[in-house]
Amino acid sequence: MTGRADGKALLVTANEGDGTLNIFSARESAPAADLTDPKIVSKSIFWSAVSGLTTDGTFLYAVPDNAWTPSRIWRIDMSGLQNGTVEVDRAIVLRKDGKPVAYDLEGICRTDEGFWLVSEGKTGAENLLLFADEGGAVKAEYPLPETLLAAHGDPKNYGFEGVATADGKTVYVALQRGFDPEKSDAAILRFSVASGTWETAAYPLERHSKNAKKFWMGLSDVVLANPSTLLVVERDKGMGGTAEVKRIYAVDLKGYTDGGRLAKRLVCDIAVERGLLLEKVESLVLLNGHMWIATDNDGAGWTRLLDLGPVR
């Protein structure tokens, strides 16, 4: 701790790894709470790597990716929002046949019966649609069928990224970069729980203007605004000066046909409207009619939870 000529206290830290110095000054008074960007806190539960969000209308529920083993669902109490903080107050560990189990969870959707989740695999067949009860017991796993992979290709490690359902009977799943990452389409899959059948429709991706290969485009999450409208998070791999696309689009599901191509409508340009140039806009949830997003920190760094306002 040191001081300046004007009497203000400064905190200086030396960073051994890169040889830099950080200089911090303390605020004389606390800033007003920003309800659109609350601080996430926890009294006793360790958390990070938020890669999917859902809600029951009161609490948010979040999953991490494979940064955490075994897999778990965190509950986030939003009641402190007016004070600018929300609290991770519960962890639900996933169990299969009574034993803790590990997945690479990328999406979550809550229903009255429990949680639909998606796990991203390194090959197409390893991508899993899961159902777990409210206590975290995994009741069903639904992999991509070999017939679908044979017909469309293997997405490899660009697999399941988001899940949405209105009734637990028809489930929509986002395939991050589609069945062929070399093409400019992602895919939205539709799964019928009763029949166990999968359908697929192409989702047109944007293209990075500078380096489309390095800053590739993909889907991060999906949520139903209503039974016939799917909101989709689309983003590039860029950050800071290389970030171009951090957007939410709406897809009219009335036009969904197996093997067809979906149309999209821009709902929110996060980079332009909020100046958010972080790489991983990873999660989307609707709470009280507002769109909330979270950024994934991959197990380290800063996770932001942002209120983007009502669906337009």
Give a written overview of the molecule.
The protein has one domain: Neuraminidase (6 Propeller). It contains 2 helices and 25 strands. Strand 11 and strand 12 form a beta hairpin. The N and C termini lie far apart (49 Å).
Note the topology.
Layout: E1 2-3, E2 9-15, E3 20-25, E4 39-41, E5 50-55, E6 59-64, E7 72-77, E8 85-93, E9 95-96, E10 99-100, E11 105-110, E12 115-119, E13 128-132, E14 138-143, H1 146-152, E15 160-165, E16 170-175, E17 185-192, E18 197-204, E19 217-226, E20 229-236, E21 246-252, E22 264-269, H2 270-274, E23 281-287, E24 290-295, E25 305-310
Parallel strand pairs: 4-8
Antiparallel strand pairs: 1-2, 2-3, 5-6, 6-7, 7-8, 9-10, 11-12, 12-13, 13-14, 15-16, 16-17, 17-18, 19-20, 20-21, 21-22, 23-24, 24-25
Taking the sheet with the most strands, its summary is:
5 strands, mixed
CATH class, anyone?
Mainly Beta
- The number of helical elements comes to 2
Cα separation of the termini? 49 Å
Kindly summarize this structure in a few lines.
The protein has 312 residues and is mainly beta. It has 2 helices and 25 strands.
